[in-house]
Structure formats: structure tokens, C-alpha cells
Specification:
Elements: E1 2-11, E2 15-16, H1 27-41, E3 50-57, E4 64-65, E5 68-77, H2 80-101, E6 104-113, H3 120-133, H4 140-150, H5 180-184, H6 206-212, H7 215-237, H8 239-253
Antiparallel strand pairs: 1-5, 1-6, 2-4, 3-5
Helix pairs in contact: 1-2, 3-7, 7-8
Amino acid sequence: MANVSGMFRFHGVSAHAASNPHLGRSALDGLEVMDVAVNAMREHIPETVRIHNIITVGGKAPNVVPDFAETYYYVRDWDPAIVGQVLARVRKAAEGAAMATETRVEFELMNGVFGLLPNDTLGKLMDANLHEAGPPRWTETDRAFGERLGTTLAARRPLEEGQQLSAYSSGERGAGSTDVGDVSWVVPTVGLRVATYPPGTSAHSWQATAAAGASFGVKGAIVAAKVIAMTGADLLRDPELLKAARAEFERRRGEGFVYRSLAGDRQPPLDYRRAGSE
């Protein structure tokens, strides 16, 4: 999915929360009012949109009116135009919240990525190579590891699902985001997913990390590497495949398309996970 993210930083006036709270203007109040406004807005946006956020800074002590608060927002949709429209409304919610609480808010655009542009020419080629390479070949030790890890999952599924080859689906939409999406709008692009953790594992979890770093996950990575190499070799041997992939790419992009990063021209925010920096 296309995805734009940014930091909202509220600035207020600190005061003692018991003896002179009337002198303070809570940055955290501004942040919370923004969250309430965005939550009310969810009913009035396209159903495909996803909005996520966390509070990265909410103050330092309950008895002190916080003069700084920070929240990190993501807005996702398959259509980058819709992402931009919804983000603009989220920014209005922040501005309104600042006005309501007599605080000040700043917005920093952190990142933006396009959704993946499919290419069936390359996808079908890679699918054929995946079927030739076959699924990961787990040993009994790998299976025992996967079964044991599966007992910790909230939505456990049969381990065998990780060795089933799904039928090729044209233009199937996933729910994540990746900067490979930007690459796919500049050059014909293809990718695949191979099981490196037990079915039912949530991404960004300790279970995914544990499996990916174990023999269980390495075997999946080896399959992926083989399929990528086989697909690359096919393209080197057959220039007509490359021409067909390029023609499909141009058709899907549309005439006159010019790539412009959704993150603008800012330098990469390599310290984006910092908390409380003003």
C-alpha cells in the first residue's frame, strides 16, 4: 500500500498541575484532542484507508503540565492520491486540536512510499520458477521448532500451509508497505514471498525474528534466492521477456507519468525513531 508517515509535535506551557494548573497549556491535551478528532474522522474516509499512530512522548510526570508531546502517524491506502487527501485532513485535525487547547503544533513529514505496481509478465515467470524450485525443505528439527513456536501464536495455523504453493493471482493487493513500491514505478519489478516463519505468525513480532534467524527461516530465504536467480537468468537469456515486461510496465504506469517521491526532497530521517527531540 502507499504510505505516508509523519511526526506531530505539540508545544504548550509547563506548570505545576496542582498549585497553578491554570497557568499551563498541556501539549498532551492537544495531542489527545487530535487523536479524538482523527478517530471521529475514520467513519468518513474510504474503507480501504488505514491510519495508525503511537504516542512517542506524553510528558514526564503526572503532576507537571507537559509542555511537549509527540505522536507518530501513518496513513495508508493503495491509491497515493487518497493517502495525500487523508493526511491533509489529519493535519487539519492537529491544527484544530492545537487551537482548542491553546497549544502549538508542528508537522514533520518522515517518509512516503508508493504501492507496488504489478507486472504479470515478470510475475508469471517468477511463479513458474517457484514451482520448479519447490517449497522450503524442512527437517524434522525445523518442523519441531515451528510447532513449538506455533504454540505461542494467537492465530496458529497448520505448519503445512508454509509449504503450499499458492496459485498465481494477478494484481493481488497486500496490506503492508515497502519502498520497493517506489522502485516498481521506475523500473519493471517483481518479488515473491516464501515462508520464513510458521503460518499465523504476526510480522514485527519476536516469533518472526526468532524463526527468521533460525534454520527454519534460512531455508525459506534459500528458496527465495534460488527463484530470484532463476528468474534473472531467464531474463538474460530471453530479451523478448524483457521487452514484454517493459511494455506492460509502461501501460500500467500510464502515459506521461513522472515519478515524484511522496516523501518530497527531504534527506532520509535516519534518526526517525528518536523520542522527544524538539
